[in-house]
Design brief:
Length: 139
């Protein structure tokens, strides 16, 4: 049996409203259905996929410890994972959108495969990579 897809990643946040605004307003995701859970948070969707779960740090920590799955408690950021990547369309539109929210991302190009990239951090220090393929994508 092989893995079939990436389901989601969870961002632990000290300010879930700021985190929601970042992902929804700056990146264009949307808040969607989230079942009744015993901690505060949001499920943020890209299309039909709730790919980012946001959890408020203290209530999530209490919940997780209560079910015997302690939270990885470390410094804000991505820990041992360097970044999380998304694909997107309209490089110029996304760059303008980010700038309108006061975000100045770093840019990178990989011309050999027709790739332009934006790198930025979310409010909890998670590094985000956004990929835009402008030519034929390498296999």
């Amino acid at each position: 049996m092989a893995l079939t897809k990436l389901e989601h990643y969870l961002v632990i946040s000290d300010d879930i409203e700021e985190t929601r605004r970042f992902y929804c307003d700056a990146l264009g995701m949307r808040v969607g259905f989230r079942p009744e859970l015993e901690f505060d948070g949001y499920w943020l969707y890209v299309g039909d996929v709730p790919c980012i779960h946001v959890a408020e740090r203290e209530s999530y920590k209490r919940y997780s410890e209560g079910i015997g799955i302690p939270v990885t408690d470390g410094n804000p950021g991505t820990g041992m994972i360097d970044h999380v990547a998304f694909n997107a369309d309209d490089f110029d539109g996304m760059l303008e959108r980010l700038r309108s929210h006061g975000i100045e991302p770093k840019q990178n190009r990989v011309d050999e495969i027709g790739l332009r990239q934006l790198f930025l951090d979310d409010p909890s220090g998670v590094k985000i990579e956004i990929n835009f393929f402008v030519g034929k994508r390498a296999s």
